[in-house]
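We read letters as residues; the integers encode the fold. Take this protein.
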Amino acid sequence: MFQKKTISWIIFIALSLIWGSSFILMKKGAEHLNGWQIGAIRIFSAGLVFVPFAVFHLRSIPSNKLLLVILSAVIGNLFPAFLFAIAIQREIESSVAGILNSLTHYLLYL
């Protein structure tokens, strides 16, 4: 029980650092890149990580639900990646961007 709880906390802290650092990194990247470039890098790097999983699981998606999955990906991932990067380039605080990002995910999946 103790070991399971400790592992859960370690995973939670690691995910918090990874998720939260993306907004700080976007803020630092905005010094040299524009919002479109930052958004493209975020989507490209996420694509590199998730393509192996997508190839494996793509066959399990029913063909009548594929359009819904694509729409969900565009609205939930593609648009926010570019919009938050452009907002950070225009001097929005990275902490505010992080809070807004959590709200978009919450509202999208209500």
Summary: The two ends are 32 Å apart (CA to CA). The CA atoms of residues 42 and 81 lie 7 Å apart. The chain has four helices and no strands.
